[in-house]
Amino acid sequence: MSYPPDPRQAAFAGRRTDGTAIQRPLSPHLQAYNMLEMSSGMSIAHRATGIAWSAGMVFLVWWLVALASGPSAFAQVQWFLSSFLGLLMLFGLTVVAWFKTLAGVRHLVWDAGYGYSLPVMVRSGQAVLIGTAVLTMLTWVLALMVWR
Amino acid sequence: MSAPNSMRTPLGRVRGLGSAKSGTHHWWMQRVTSLALLPLFLWFIFAMLSLAGAGHAEARAFLARPWNALLMLSLVGFSFHHIAGGLQVVIEDYVRPEKLRMLVILAVKGLSWAAAMISAFAVLRVAFT
Questions:
Q1: Distance from CA of B115 to the nearest CA of A (A)
Q2: Do residues A148 and B53 lie in contact, with contact meaning Cβ atoms separated by under 8 Å?
Q3: What confidence tens digit (pLDDT) does each residue in A17-33 have?
Q4: Contact yes or no for A41/A95 (Cβ under 8 A)
Q5: Residue A2 domain flag
Q6: Which of A67-76, B10-19, B35-44, B85-94 has the lowest mean pLDDT?
Q7: Beta bridge partners of B60
Q8: Domain residue spans in chain B?
Q9: Fewer CB atoms near the end CB (10 Å): N or C, chain B?
Q10: What confidence score (pLDDT) does residue B93 get?
Q11: Does domain B22-128 fall into CATH 1.20.1300.10?
Q12: Mean pLDDT, rounded, of chain A
């Protein structure tokens, strides 16, 4: 196969069952898409937040196990979560969780067959971004109000 | 719609499971689990807010209440089901070659299962002791 003239073709290398080379499109790669466009940017962010939330779930497992283990183990996890690094991480996970939730609802609306036109797609994307900011702030204002 | 001279049998067409033998099951389960996670996530935010800065005894008493224990068990179960399915798609998209891809998917499924079991056991222990 010759050098691909378009960067999007870089990941297209495939083979037919008889072994001959063929270019087939693969799933989106970061190099091939403009990350700042509403369509691709939101798609990449949806996947990235999914991965980030999966990693963040480790802390829920830790928290639950510590809670079941006893006061000293629980004090350790609470110490970490209320440290600067822990709070920063919790704030990040709050952003991730609200984004993933709202973007997930957007996907469910698409799955139901609505909202595919370009202007609506841009507006629903903006709504997800604004909603994420508002709900994250609301969550943390409430959290700091009830913190004891 | 398949052409009249398709080589697929009518039974195969009716089952609609395609060559991978699973049809849209994986896709559909991601939607089902995401729907279940929507109310569970809202409860989770409420639960974490009401436990902000709480001590061990207080947090334990909260999770030991039957509804909270049931909701946390549901959250953990649906979350790790959704996580295993979601990460599987990411791996299928980007990890090559085939053998490594299969190994990584199996590792993710195993870790998700372990995390779900450990979490569920912790919740049950809090609820029953």
A1: 7
A2: yes
A3: 788 888 766 665 666 67
A4: no
A5: no
A6: B10-19
A7: none
A8: 22-128
A9: N
A10: 86
A11: yes
A12: 89
